[in-house]
Design goal:
alpha+beta; 6-stranded mixed sheet; elongated; two-stranded antiparallel sheet; 397 residues
Length: 397
């Protein structure tokens, strides 16, 4: 008995039922194959919703990200927490599509859990006989046998090729199923109208922490971080708030190839604005600055949103993801090589020789244009008084 077995025999769900069941079964072969299949099942389910619900307007592009981010789709879903969680299925599937993907069983299981929640929402809104169900990891088929690395890679490569082939072969079949669902959209709309908004499950601190960790870990892997070599979780620091001996623990410490800190990640609950962790992150950065002699960069994340902070160069700003290792190293290097413009001496030969009269009339501004120690000095001659020749109502510049 699998988690998605309730979809069997329901003609309305024929468009995505088999794909969901296949994604669950695939975990017994490989987490990578399962994550890839889960993304495919999710894409079919999203297209089913567009065919079933005329209140959801198709976007200009029909790729999965465009479909998910369409405002009418997000409004129909109503549950913002679920909507944000859907990104995990997409990202895990995209990662699985690459040959060097390193997904674990728990990663694929988490993807299946989110897919299940989305299918439950579909069944609640449009189903004939909705029953409240919960995802049970014990129902997911276990790995039947452990394959050697070479055999597993070969199996995963074959699954990727099959996945790409299915996309082309099933296009016509999917189009026919979409047409059938559109024909039933009136009935489906009536069912949805009869239902109140789907109740949101109560917040669970354990699953909340898992959600946050899964999203952050996946984002780090997507940009190339080696989770075993370059990242330390719960890194201990001392001297919090300037008090000797007071300890703290950095959620994520991101190291460079030389083993020295580049950045930290302060993780907050998914229900919180990640900016709430800024003060705490700065206290950690203070400790690391005293320990290593320079200040690491800061990221704030709740799993769904990420902010970047470089205390030496302005306030925090939202970014799409944590930066790659080489990008962070480049920022640190630029900071170390930066030159204070006020410390650059004026080249008298360029500024008019030693003529004090001329020099005193110059307005000097120095601007650093290179990290190699060179600077450009802009010399502006003061303007002579100019008689007004414009009408009074014109603006003067």
């Amino acid at each position: 008995m699998a988690n998605f077995s309730f979809l069997q025999g329901q003609d309305d769900y024929a468009m995505f039922a088999d794909a969901c069941l296949e994604a669950e079964r695939a975990l017994s072969l490989s987490p990578t194959i399962s994550a890839l299949a889960a993304r495919r099942a999710f894409e079919l389910a999203v297209k089913w919703v567009y065919a079933a619900d005329k209140t959801i307007k198709p976007p200009y592009k029909d790729n999965l990200q465009s479909l998910v981010h369409e405002p009418t789709f997000r409004a129909a879903l109503a549950d913002n927490h679920l909507w944000e969680s859907l990104q995990y299925v997409i990202k895990a599937g995209n990662m699985a599509a690459h040959r060097n993907a390193q997904l674990k069983g728990e990663d694929a299981m988490f993807s299946l859990r989110i897919l299940f929640a989305f299918i439950q929402w579909i069944d609640y809104c449009y189903g004939r006989h909705y029953t409240k169900r919960t995802f049970d990891p014990k129902q997911v088929p276990a790995v039947s046998r452990v394959l050697a690395t070479k055999a597993r890679k070969a199996q995963e490569d074959a699954a990727r090729k099959e996945y790409e082939a299915q996309i082309g072969e099933q296009t016509k079949q999917i189009a026919e199923l979409e047409a059938q669902i559109r024909a039933l959209s009136g009935q489906l709309a009536e069912r949805k109208a009869e239902q109140p908004p789907m109740p949101q499950p109560p917040a669970d601190e354990l699953s909340e922490a898992e959600t946050r960790r899964r999203f952050i870990d996946l984002d780090l892997q997507l940009v190339g971080w080696n989770m075993n070599r370059d990242i330390i979780t719960e890194y201990p620091v001392t001297g919090m708030e300037g008090n000797p001996g007071q300890k703290g623990y950095v959620d994520y410490l991101l190291n460079g190839r030389d083993g020295k800190p580049l950045a930290i990640i302060e993780a907050k609950r998914t229900t919180y604005d990640p900016a709430k962790g800024l003060q705490q992150a700065r206290l950690y950065a203070d400790c690391l600055e005293r320990q290593f002699g320079y200040r690491p960069l800061i990221f704030l994340s709740n799993g769904y949103q990420t902010y970047f902070v470089d205390d030496d160069h302005g306030s925090y700003r939202q970014v799409g993801e944590v930066f790659a290792q080489d990008d962070l190293q480049r920022i640190i290097n630029r900071r170390h090589n930066a030159i204070d413009p006020a410390s650059v001496p004026v080249n008298r030969d360029v500024a008019g020789g030693n003529d004090a009269t001329i020099s005193s009339k110059l307005s000097k501004r120095s601007v650093t244009t290179s990290t190699k120690g060179s600077a450009v000095v802009c010399l502006l001659w003061p303007q002579a008084p100019v008689k007004r020749v414009f009408p009074q109502h014109w603006s003067m510049y």
